[in-house]
Amino acid sequence: SSQLCQDFPAFYNRPIETSKTVINGDILPSIHLPEPKRARLVPPSNERIMVYVRQETEDVYTPLHLVPPTVPGLIASIENKYKINATNIRYIYRKNRDGIVAKIDDDMLRHYCNEDVFLMQVMVTEGPGGEETMVYDITLSEIQAAMDTSA
Question: Are 146 and 132 in contact (CB under 8 A)?
Answer without folding.
Answer: no
